[in-house]
Amino acid sequence: MEGKAPIMRRSALAAIAAIGSASLFLTGCSKADDSKNDNGTKSAGADAATKGVVNASDKKGGTLTYELSDVPDSFDPGNTYYAYMYNLSRLWARPLMTFQPGAGEKGNTLVPDLAAGKGVPSEGGKVWTYKLRPGMTYEDGTPITSKDVKYAVERSNFARDVLSLGPNYFQQFMAGGDKYKGPYKDKSGKGLSSIETPDDTTIVFHLKQAFQEFDYLVASPQTAPVPQAKDTGVDYVKKIVSSGSYKFESYEEGKQAVLVRNDKWDAKTDPLRKQLPDKIVVKLKVNAETIDKDVLAGNAIDLGGTGVQAATQAQALTDASKKANTDNTYGGRLVYMAINTTVKPFDKVECRKAVQYAIDKVSVQTAEGGPIRGDIATTVLPPDIPGYEKSDVYASAGNKGDAAKAKEQLKACGKDKITTNISARSDRPQEIDAATAIINSLKSVGITANLKQYPSGKYFTDYAGVPKFTKKENIGLEMMQWGADWPSGYGFLQQILNGSAIGESGNTNLSQYDNKDVNALLAKAIGTQDMAERNSIYTQIDKKTMDDAVLVPLTYFKVLLARPTTYTNLVSTAAFSGQYDYLNIGVASK
């Protein structure tokens, strides 16, 4: 899923480099562990939330505030693809499965949510059956049924002209999924025949091929139930019917959402949620500097999991008391630049390889905030995703690029100069700084790339994720960040490399890579029962993709989170890109 990039203030590269260098020295500082918070209590210590739950408590009451510098793609659980919305949406939308709250890799553990147990596979993994927990209701007291889950999957995957923002795994893998036109066009009312609901508590998925990781797939918010009678298509976001522990009291588009306790939620039907705060406020379009101040003051959580800005980062790393309330963790994400294989001359592999060799990755890492913000990347799969194998196809001395090899590849491509455009998100200064560093590297070998900036909220729906737009605007290079939809090679690779994932809008395969061998390997992997064999296939896909030079790995993303001292149950989880698990955060004091 697309991870929200860390936001930092624009600044001169030299200043950022100083911060990066400082972080190398300060990471090993142990004094932070003995520091006290402003309220006099002892801090849990730096990186404590990456090892366990900080300030564990069942205390109820208070108002919990989240702040975001932009707007999310959507609060609609069937129409979102940002990691932080997958995380937050569990408060009002219960999927069939979800991830157990836990530190780091422990957070990757799948547990039943709406379902009473894990899926029961049959026919070698082509059929999956789930039973729902009994007694669950919506916020209006009406029962939740398996038919509502079926409908939720249909609307989120088979009405791409209406709801295009989420992934389309079910459309790709359900038997007959390529023919079904979706619930808004289905006049019969029968829905997709390969999803059966023999009774109100049973749902059966019939796939066109074996899918050994299907439990991960149903952990997406797309399986959170939606009552068909209450669905209003793209406007459903204005009146979402809650199946979780909180419901919407109000929603002001582009401004804020306010959640309150769902009084019809029954803890007996839900062993995961604690329903601690009285109210949860989600503020949108908050200045990034303001978010840092509010987080440090204990008045908010950075919803995007973006980490602190450059100036705050410098303060946190040089002040032991501040550093004691930070968590620096891998985010299970790759920061990269997609090379658009449909925009000439990048339809030729030699021109793509010229870009690979030209880029000084150290300058990009520096622009992103130094080593504390990520290790230099050379593969598609990050080190914390199964299938990763260390490799560097386009190695250069000190990772600073190889101009001579870049020019050789340009010549092999029949070019001595290239003019193109590079896209980045206008509200992400760090991404813009990284793109600027890339532009400088490319210029030295004869490739002129002009920066085009677009807002995050519409980056995939209107700009970089629209193939017709990128071709028309000559956008050959696109800044991107990606985290696994679930913690496996398939969960990471499918939506950015498979040709079948390319869509007219909301597309995340920004390279528009459609290679029959890679497509076949992905299909083979997901049907392979043996995990070791499956992981070896993911390694093959990684190597093939790098040989084809369709994306440039820049950094294995790390985030520096400030941990508010007034909130409880804070734990950084790998399941949601290193963010704090938003399911059970409470309020200690104000």
Describe this structure as you would to a colleague:
The longest helix is centred in the C-terminal third of the chain and has 18 residues, at 531-548. The strands form 5 sheets. A 6-stranded mixed β-sheet has the order 13-17-12-16-14-15. The protein has a 5-stranded mixed β-sheet with strand order 8-9-10-1-11, with helices on one face. A 4-stranded antiparallel β-sheet has the order 4-5-7-6, with helices on one face. It contains 17 helices and 19 strands. Strand 4 and strand 5 form a beta hairpin. The chain has 2 domains: 63-282 and 566-587, Periplasmic binding protein-like II (D-Maltodextrin-Binding Protein, domain 2), CATH 3.40.190; 331-558, Dipeptide-binding Protein, Domain 3 (Dipeptide-binding Protein, domain 3), CATH 3.10.105.10. Helix content is 26%, strand content 18%. It is α+β, with helices and mostly antiparallel strands. Residues 3-34 have low confidence and may be disordered. It has helices at 13-26, 83-88, 146-157, 169-173, 214-217, 288-296, 310-318, 320-323, 349-358, 361-367, 403-412, 429-443, 459-463, 467-472, 489-497, 516-526, 531-548; strands spanning 63-67, 97-99, 110-112, 120-122, 127-131, 195-199, 202-206, 246-252, 256-261, 279-283, 301-302, 326-339, 374-376, 418-425, 447-454, 475-483, 551-562, 567-568, 586-587. InterPro entries: Peptide/Ni-bd (IPR030678), SBP_5 (IPR039424), SBP_5_dom (IPR000914). Residues 1-32 form the signal peptide. Keywords: Signal.
